[in-house]
Batch of 2 targets.
Target 1
Amino acid sequence: MQDDKIIEGELWTENDRISYIGPAKTDADKKFDREIDCKGSLLMPGLKNAHTHSAMTFSRSLADEYCLNDWLHKAIFPREAKLTPENVYWFSKLAYADYLAGGITACFDMYFHKYDNAKAAVESGFRHVFCGAANDYGGFEALEQNYIDLNDYDPLVSFKLGFHAEYTTCEDNLKFMSELAHKYNAPVYTHISETSDEVEGCKERYGITPAVLFDKMGIFDFGGGGFHCVWFTDEDRDIFKKRGLWSVFNACSNLKLASGITPVYKFIEKDMNIAIGTDGAGSNNALSMFREMYLDTVLSNVETHNAAAVDPFTILKAGTTGGALCMGLYDSDVLAEGKKADIIMIDMNKPCMQPENNIVRNIIYSADNDCVKMTMIDGKILYEDGNYTTIDLDEVIRETNKLMKGLSDI
Ligand SMILES: [Zn+2]
């Protein structure tokens, strides 16, 4: 991913790390537990889902055809009030199964009942980075303890400070957020400028946009970023650029909730830090990074009338390396010796991946989850040829459907 370089040869892993990448070589002293003939398929860094609400798989196709405001208040918040830790445990596992089948090796997840979610992540072998979800309805009182506990829970789990959004968080709570960032010199992440109503509401309350407000309050003094960034002004982009903040795009969710289209090309023109996420299954409804990467590449063409507005390799980097750096996974960003073995295999023998005129373009414009042959996290194969090694999918389907009975009728 560093320079669009494809190496023909071998990749070795040892424990949780990549130990060799290069031309095929024989080493008589090396004993492997397993050797895999990739048959011309492609190994690449796992896709990083840099904004999601994993346990929202419960709301998939449960409440659609709403705009964001009605969707949240009529369909989602009343159901989330009834969600139990057991719900979050099982519905997160369903999301992990979906992520693994789609070549996703880490997620940046904003939700609640985090300890039960962490248990599901570790049992599944999934790399889970939590983002604080605090707002005026709750979460701020536990935020610091979550930060301490979940950064010391398991090597697969980490926690970043975060809050839901400006429109759900009063000024006092925003001040508290800033103080906590300063106490720990920590980056902060939040939903930002997702809809034009959100930006207008913030201007009515404070006379400025959310990005300018958070910047003024010192919330971004130690970095961080924002999810969606659809309605950013040039000034907002300048702030994010100046501070090296991450803009995370969620094209499917923004289209489905009628929120708008992020002008991805404007972020690339400024050489900003960008990453990609699916958002939750309630607003997407798929959890496919391939679908996101396709839309993030082509949607700018509509506004610019320029079919070359966004370079596909820039988007592939955002979906892999960018996501890893955004969520602090500095060892999972590229395939290189010494890096974490968070690797996927793309089946180049699928009809949609042939001919190999340009592999990057094939991935962005033509691939889908069906092209993922193998997903490895931390040196362990968790998904291969449609089978899971840590998740009992039949059990997950049985349990989640049972739990839906308490959630569907509201
Ligand atoms: Zn979201």
Target 2
Amino acid sequence: MFPFLDLAGINRRDEAALTEAFQRVLRSGWYVLGEEVAAFEAEYAGLCGARHAIGVGNGLDALTLILRGYRQLGRLAESDEVILPNNSFVATALAVSEAGLRPVLVEPDVETFNIDPAAVEAAIGPRTRAIIAVHLYGRLADMDALRRLADRHGLLLIEDAAQAHGARDAQGLAAGALGDAAGFSFFPVKNLGALGDAGALTTQDDALAEQVRKLRNYGSSRKYVHELQGVNSRLDELQAALLRVKLARVEADAQARRQLAGRYLEGIDNPHLRLPRAPVIAESHVWHQFVIRSAQRDALQAHLESLGVPSLIHYPIPIHRQAAYAEYAVVDLPVSMQLAGEVLSLPLYPGMAEEWVDRTIEACNTFRP
Ligand SMILES: Cc1ncc(COP(=O)(O)O)c(C=O)c1O
């Protein structure tokens, strides 16, 4: 079986530059909150077209700190409701809970896998204060519809852009500049991945940026003076230096992913499989995952495996059926339940061997339920 994702191969492309970055940090003698983080923050803000990018420990913290920052600013208060898609990775909900707010889980659209604006509208109540739009699998959520809803009801619109680095809308605006604030993960498997845990948030809002810069650093902007009960969640110099190297490839890698997605969309032709639909604006999808559907998903996965083709399930248990969210188990969310039983992610990454792409297409086409 070939690898589902060849991280070593992806990073080998930059081995010399990554090694040089490591040595630069090693020899600098400065390892936390220094020049590399400041430079990465400026460069990442540039990619997103955001006024501020703030490096933090991971993607979960990025989202949590956005919400905590808005609490400091009085825009959110204890137990306020935040609407998010039930088929996301659990971190989206954990951030809401960790910030002392209440997740409200809603259904995705089956075609795009992204949060369904109609479901969001139906879920808005007197305690609703924010929506988190997850750009799931790398595809931009319907931000125009969500912005209209947010404006009409006076809600914050936050992006969970953990899977969507560099995705752009019809106007050329990037993930990270489409809402009030956005959280990014640079977990190694992401389209922009560090060599360990790392994350960042972006925002156009100076006041939020100021709060978050304090919150990530023990609630302090001056050494040993603590204005807030903050946390320790800083992007470290080493990861920032490595990310600066890898940042140069984000756009080209997204294009390579689009090409591979195009190969799958053209080559896979099996009436028993549902393929993802390519968006009208090609740039609005960075294909973090290529997710197909089958009512016989487990048999499909076994068939692929028997032909040496790896696959993964993102995600097998929707948030409302996680033990961590047992109080939501009674909520009826049939669309996300159905998707959890049908989705299967195929291997897709820059540098994936032609032969592996062909083998994946062939294996999909020979599946018979
Ligand atoms: C949609 C989504 N949100 C949040 C996260 C959390 O990021 P991290 O793993 O860096 O905490 C991830 C990735 O793991 C994710 O895929």
